[in-house]
């Protein structure tokens, strides 16, 4: 399942329709957990590696990012690695 804006449960996100969509591997680009585009990007990147992620699982990833992501996870790659190790270690 490819997650889209309407699949997110949070309503606090900022959206920047002018920037190109995030794609490829997570990078050292600064990660902002309040940027809806970046949250979707990490959920969808995780889903691409896991094979299949349900709507519920995607929302769990979203809530984990929103509530539990440490402040030290400042880049996309560090946020993704934290999600993979801490929240969903099966990947």
Proportion in β-strands: under 5%
Number of strands: 0
| Oligomer type | single chain
Overall domain count: 1
Average the pLDDT over all residues and give the rounded result: 89
The number of helical segments is: 3
What spatial form do the alpha-carbon principal axes imply?
A: globular
Fraction of residues in helix: 40-55%
Rg measurement, Å: 12 Å
Structural summary, described in words:
By secondary structure, the protein is mainly α. Helix content is 45%, strand content 0%. The chain has one domain. The protein is built from three helices and no strands. The two termini are 17 Å apart. The model has no long low-confidence stretch (mean pLDDT 89).
Features:
91 residues, mainly alpha, 3 helices
Lay out the secondary structure:
Blueprint: H1 36-50, H2 55-68, H3 76-87
Summarize the structure.
The chain has 91 residues and is an all-alpha fold. The protein contains 3 helices and no strands.
